[in-house]
Amino acid sequence: MVSCSTFLVSMYAIVLHSVVPVRLEPREGAEQETQLLFGEVCQITETLPRWYKIRNEADGEEGYVDAIMLSPMSDEEHATHTAALASGTARVKFPMTYAVSENNQQTIPLTLGTRLPNYKNGQFEVLGVTFRIDSAAVAEQPLPLNQSTLMQVMRFLLNTPYLWGGKNAMGLDCSGMTQTVMSLFGINLPRNASQQVKCGEEVKSLNHAQAGDLVFFDHADPNCDGSLPHNCANDTRITHVGLLLDAERVIHCSGRVKIEHIDERGILSTERQGYTHHLAAIRRM
């Protein structure tokens, strides 16, 4: 593709919409790679007519965003906002809630996992603008990671439909789900399953696993056995990730967010009456 770059007005931009798509190519019909949530900051690495190529500061993901969906920041605004994010851990813990601007009383829907800089007593501040929010919808500190708290979060997300590149409560992909959910427990993960599998510590087997461990799956056929090696895929690339509820149940997003049975072979689906994903690794973050 021939570059049509122009000069950069600002090196940084912030998201002031609830969710913004990040695309593989600079066009509306291009595949959605991931999403940016309200308050997230990105570095602008290239400008094109109507589009910015960006890098998300939170996880390093790159792609193209429609320029009208981003608000450029001065270096001073960027430094102030980044410091505010670094000093606080408050995040939205409900699937969806609303913030009200003190400037004009307009409401902005915020989805689970959205970070709230300078949060205190039902208020937070972005670029000098104060917003009010229901304090019951906010996790002011990282939640303790155990089966009870994991289910408290996941019960809101069950049956959320699968959406490629999605990381909000209206549509998720598998790694978008794990990245967003684990952020509520103070664990910051990279965006994709192939990156997440490199994090944390190895867990040898499901017998040693606990709630909140990440389970990873590859291309291999979980329905095959050792007597039929030539009929089984031999591709170990990680293609799917989920969260363990316990040693026999996994929460994952495949078609929708759901709870299914897991054993050492993989995920056993009652809907499809067979194994659907081959277990490749277990990691504790």
Computed structural class:
mainly beta
- Order of helices and strands, N to C? EEEEEEEHEEEEEEHEEHHEEEEEEE
| Total number of helices | 4
Q: How would a textbook summarize the main sheet? A: 6 strands, antiparallel, barrel
* Total individual domains: 3
- Rg computed from alpha carbons, rounded to a whole number of angstroms: 20 Å
What is the CATH architecture term of the largest domain?
Alpha-Beta Complex
Taking pLDDT < 50 over at least 5 consecutive residues as the criterion, the unreliable ranges are 1-9, 226-235
CATH superfamily descriptor of the largest domain: endopeptidase domain like (from Nostoc punctiforme)
Helix content: 10-25%
Write out the strand line-up for the largest beta sheet, numbering strands in chain order.
17-18-19-20-21-22
Overview of the molecule:
The protein is mainly beta. It has three domains: 12-75, SH3 Domains (SH3 type barrels, Roll), CATH 2.30.30; 88-139; 147-284, endopeptidase domain like (from Nostoc punctiforme) (endopeptidase fold (from Nostoc punctiforme)). Helices cover 12% and strands 38% of the residues. It is built from four helices and 22 strands. Strands 17-18-19-20-21-22 form a six-stranded antiparallel beta barrel. The longest helix is centred in the first third of the chain and has 13 residues, at 75-87.
